[in-house]
Give the backbone structure.
Amino acid sequence: MKIFPLILLFIGCVLMQKKGGKEIATHELPNSAIEVFEKFGCKDCHTLPPTGFTEYGKEMISKGYGCVSLQSLALKHKLKGEAREVFIKNGCVKCHDLDGRGFGDKNLTSFGLKINERNLGCVGTFKELLGEVK
């Protein structure tokens, strides 16, 4: 019977790493801000330098679906309909919990925690990219 809690812990860890049916492996952790920008959906809405927006980004902002707005909705468990679809499509679910049950005030998944430890979260990436283009 002592093995049962260990099995539950293992299953919990595996489930926490799965988002959208895709398991996120540790080897997929990005090493730079530009890698985050290119692979995590940032470039769909933001331009480089990261002070401008693509047409799609402008459309999302006009609907109230900016990065901060979507995250706020997720934390309040009010991410529904089109906002929920945008949160998934834009790749926010890689690092942020879809239903606001993630870790801390940033609502991070276990993968998001790893990214944040590298200072490559949303804010860290933005700051690093601003420094790279100056």
User: Anything to note?
Assistant: The chain is about 55% helix and 5% strand.
